[in-house]
Amino acid sequence: MRGFGRLKLTSVGLMDYIASQQLKNTLLINGFWRSGTTWLQQTLVQTLNAKSLFEPFSPAAGQHWSQLGPKASDASRNVYMPLSADCLTARDQFKLRLALRGIGTHGYTHFLRTSRSKTWSDDLVVKFTQLGFLLNDVADTYNVPIIHIRRNPAAVFASFKETDWSWRFEDVRLGEMYKLTDFTPGTPEHERAEALLHFDQSPAHRLAALWSLSEQAAQQSIESGRAHLILYEDVLRQGPAILNRLHISSVNIASNDTASPVTTSGRESLSVTQRLNDWQTRLSDEEIETIVSVSQNLFPANDYFRATPGAAEAEQPKIG
User: Fold this and answer.
1) Is residue 185 within 8 Å of residue 309, measured between CB atoms?
2) Which fold has domain 7-255+271-298?
3) % helix / strand / coil in the chain, to the nearest 5?
4) Is the pTM of this model over 0.85?
5) What does the DSSP 8-state code read for residue 258?
6) Cα 260 to Cα 23: distance, rounded to the nearest angstrom
7) Which entry of 1, 145, 250, 267 is 20 to 30 Å from 10 by CA?
């Protein structure tokens, strides 16, 4: 158990460590915040009778991003995403390995556990929101099946505006998270940081830029077969049974209409149409135009706002 002392193991975490020796299957879910990741994890945990591990890289789970300076806001610490596997410290890598073995290092990581008995399940469903740039490396290193869930960034932004979390996206500052001097010129990390810093303007600019670049990186993993893509909108229209087409399990995945534990209060019983479209009335025209422009610029192949010739040419730089 070398190195565990610094990670403040809970009693359930110690049980996780013992149970990890018999773990057979690990399924990783990744997606941008407010994209349905918690609900998807909840559905799969119930269907597979698996144990869950929730947001191992969240500061609420004891994660300390040493890459960020002491003056970074709580919001920036919560939204920070490593731009490549090279950005992970040895401690980050150690925590990632533990998570994929089903070992929680903080009570927060056991958020969706309905009982301690789930700790002894042979199957694990672990959820992250910070791995968008790292899916290739995680798939190649750990050989785990990955489901990436994607949602319209305008709907994501509208959802963020109404969350009652202890931190808010309005307080995120990309300049606190990424500094060009930390990256070697010409590397993908430097190019990504440069693009993100260019859009460190309004909250809509920041979210759209981070969503676009991380989703573009995730798309490369999807196209290479390292990850499976699920669209939030498809799950709403067709139900979670669409997961059966991925052949990630022989278990038949049934419908689950239960709201996620992190569903914004008052939105638990909305219709499918409202969930898909009400961002159009919840956001200002300027916010919508910003999200469309930035996403077309940085991730023109996205399924939500098809880029048109000449669109967003004034927004620079572009990332290939």
Assistant:
1) no
2) Rossmann fold (3.40.50)
3) 50, 10, 45
4) yes
5) P
6) 26
7) 145
